[in-house]
């Protein structure tokens, strides 16, 4: 299938006959009608056939038969979302536009089924005790608790697979045999898995120092194994690369609503009064992209949490960035979270093979 979607772009003054030639010649089977690169219509051979049946001449402008309200999608949507949209609307082609409605591409259902492989390694932290979820975690590590019909860790891995990632490192400590016996080397799941066992918990940053010297030199994605999310990991990685970041932290917008009037002042003097204010902060989402140079710089077997690692590297002059995520995200750390996850999993579309 051709990937040169520009070849099917035409203007509204083009004849129906010329539009039909474009549709027949190019494998995409559509023509996109633009005005100053703004999408104003779409034409398929079905539109041409209907026009002919209504007596429209082939020499007439394509504007007489085009669909003036075609379904389009914003360029920010993930392949998963594009696929769902096309399936729900029963369409095979979907024009892609930017925030100004300028045409920037064309996706087909076939495109969404072809996943580009990513060589970037994924490091999943799965060694915690899950104390707050006892007694569920008495004999099962938290990431292996089932949400829906699969362990959380399998759902997380499937989400990465859907974005082309296949090389995984899993950090273990508590009940490691449960994880190893289930996943093995990953071959049955179509992936590669190496296990990094922490004899003593080293913190998220410290665990990075245990990764093997054979680690691929591409930026690594690191994530806590108890997170349920629809984040498009490819976009996080692309942001990290395009911004030449050394370490990128995914963050979420978090609101705190104060139910009282807040009084500000100096000493006894009132300087301002704010009625029931809302404060907004960015909080750590437990998803990171770490460049290879940082991993190589870490001392072996020393405890280090991730916020401290970011602070250290920032003071060293390295580029540390935040990437706000707006997609579904849930840290399954408490019983209430676990109950919510059991409901949410069936509406997220990520609990698949």
Textual characterization of the structure:
InterPro entries: CBS_dom (IPR000644), CBS_dom_sf (IPR046342), Mannose-1P_guanyltransferase (IPR050486), NTP_transferase_dom (IPR005835), Nucleotide-diphossugar_trans (IPR029044). This is Nucleotidyltransferase family protein. Keywords: CBS domain. It comes from Pseudoalteromonas arctica. Residues 1-58, 66-122 form the CBS domain. The protein has a seven-stranded mixed sheet. Strands 1-2-3 form a three-stranded mixed sheet. A three-stranded mixed sheet has the order 4-5-6. The mean pLDDT is 88. It contains eleven helices and 19 strands. By secondary structure, it is an alpha/beta fold. It has two domains: 5-113, CBS-domain (Roll), CATH 3.10.580; 122-348, Spore Coat Polysaccharide Biosynthesis Protein SpsA, Chain A, CATH 3.90.550.10. The protein has helices spanning 16-25, 45-53, 79-89, 109-113, 152-161, 176-183, 203-207, 233-242, 292-297, 306-315, 335-348, and strands at residues 9-11, 30-35, 38-44, 73-74, 93-97, 103-108, 122-125, 146-147, 150-151, 167-172, 192-197, 220-224, 227-229, 247-257, 261-266, 269-275, 278-290, 320-324, 329-331. 28% of the residues lie in helices and 29% in strands. The radius of gyration is 26 Å and the shape is globular.
């Amino acid at each position: 299938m051709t990937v040169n979607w520009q070849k099917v772009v035409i203007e509204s003054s083009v004849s129906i006959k010329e539009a039909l030639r474009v549709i027949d010649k190019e494998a995409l089977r559509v023509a996109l009608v633009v005005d100053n690169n703004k999408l104003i219509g779409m034409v398929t051979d079905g539109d041409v056939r209907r026009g002919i049946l209504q007596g429209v001449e082939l020499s007439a402008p394509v504007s007489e038969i085009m669909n003036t309200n075609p379904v389009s999608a914003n360029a920010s949507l993930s392949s998963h979302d594009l696929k769902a949209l096309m399936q729900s609307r029963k369409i095979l082609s979907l024009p892609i536009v930017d925030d100004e409605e300028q045409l920037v591409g064309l996706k087909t259902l076939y495109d969404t089924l072809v996943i580009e492989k990513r060589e970037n390694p994924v490091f999943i932290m799965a060694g915690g005790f899950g104390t707050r979820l006892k007694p569920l975690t008495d004999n099962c590590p938290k990431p292996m608790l089932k949400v829906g019909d699969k362990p959380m860790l399998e759902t997380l891995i499937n989400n990465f697979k859907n974005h082309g990632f296949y090389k995984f490192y899993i950090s273990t400590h508590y009940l490691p045999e449960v994880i190893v016996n289930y996943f093995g080397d990953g071959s049955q799941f179509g992936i590669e898995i190496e296990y990094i066992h922490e004899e003593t918990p080293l913190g998220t940053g410290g665990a990075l120092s245990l990764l093997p010297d054979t680690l691929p030199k591409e930026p690594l994605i690191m994530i806590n194994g108890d997170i349920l999310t629809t984040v498009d990991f490819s976009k996080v990685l692309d942001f990290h690369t395009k911004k030449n970041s050394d370490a990128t932290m995914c963050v979420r917008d978090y609101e705190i609503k104060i139910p009282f009037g807040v009084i500000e002042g100096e000493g006894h003097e009132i300087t301002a009064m704010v009625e029931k204010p809302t404060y907004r902060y960015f909080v750590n989402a437990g998803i990171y992209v770490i460049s290879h140079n940082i991993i190589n710089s870490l001392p072996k077997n020393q405890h280090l949490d991730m916020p401290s690692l970011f602070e250290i590297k920032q003071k060293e002059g390295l580029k540390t960035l935040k990437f706000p995520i707006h997609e579904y995200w849930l840290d399954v750390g408490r019983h209430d979270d676990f109950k919510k996850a059991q409901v949410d999993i069936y509406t997220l579309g990520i609990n698949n093979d």
